Amino acid sequence: MEDGAGVSTRPGFLSRIFLHNLSAKFAALPMVITVLVVFVGCTIWTIYYSFTNSKLLPTGKFIGFDQYERLFATSRWNVSVWNLLAYGAMSLVFTLVIGFILAVLIDQKVRFESAFRTIMLYPFALSFIVTGLVWQWIMNPTLGLQGTMRKLGWDWFSFDWIANPKMVLFALLIAGLWHGTGFCMVLMLAGLRGVDEEVWKAARVDGIPTWRTYLSIVLPMMRGVLVTAVVIIGSGIVRLYDLVVALTNGGPGISSEVPAKYVFNYMFSGGNIGQGLAGATMMLLTVLIIMIPWAYLEFGGKGRR
């Protein structure tokens, strides 16, 4: 028996749907519960208590947007947001550009390609804590590169960026690029290897320069890879914390403070959970601003084509 839309209405129809691949549904059940409880539940908890005056424990009363007003009236938060915007813009652009250039170079069928890929990707296998400590030693004004060069007689050499408030963001940028550029290169290389060889043959027949082929033909064909790279890099920038702690600890002063460190300090050191959760909610909003357009481009737009 079928209704007007041609869908079966027999009593056993719905039961067959729910019983179909029952073992797979049971296997996925822990993941579904984890998502609902841990991610969705904790997200709701975070947002709710950001509207309270909770201090050491989440037991405060509802106070509306007072925590958010205080948040944006705090110079430390504003500095951290500006630092993240400046660092994020530079990191996103340079990671994509350098990663793409490295991918293009390796795509030229060079010798020892596997070795080069491994070397470039190796820093990504390290944690940000290790990366931060390594670059802290390198940039240490006394014991690092500056001290070494001055001991060799080059007294004019200066590389004290982690102690210079005007240059400390560039120190973070160098360490971040060293850590993440290899991963971006691998994504771009996978996109380049997915381009049909006939595209290159047609471009050569038409006399299109190689650089123009990459910019005008290849890059548009790699839209999916580019969007994925932007989302991964962007979400990592918003969550930037451990690299800052290991390399500069937010200093000198608060010149390299970032929102994640602000949230952590207020929740676990400052004894103000409400203020920390307000900052965390703003970080969540930023991640959603990045993720929703990506989800729309990847999934929402395909149904209309």
TrEMBL record:
This is Sugar ABC transporter permease. It is found in: Cell membrane. It is a multi-pass membrane protein. It comes from the Bacteria. The keyword Transmembrane helix applies. The chain crosses the membrane at residues 26-48, 84-106, 118-138, 167-192, 213-238, 277-297. GO terms for biological process: transmembrane transport. It holds the Pfam family BPD_transp_1. The keyword Transmembrane applies. Belongs to the binding-protein-dependent transport system permease family. InterPro entries: ABC_transporter_permease, MetI-like, MetI-like_sf. Residues 81-296 form the ABC transmembrane type-1 domain. One of its GO terms (cellular component) is plasma membrane. Keywords: Cell membrane, Membrane, Transmembrane, Transmembrane helix, Transport. Its main location: membrane. It comes from Devosia ureilytica. PROSITE patterns: ABC_TM1.
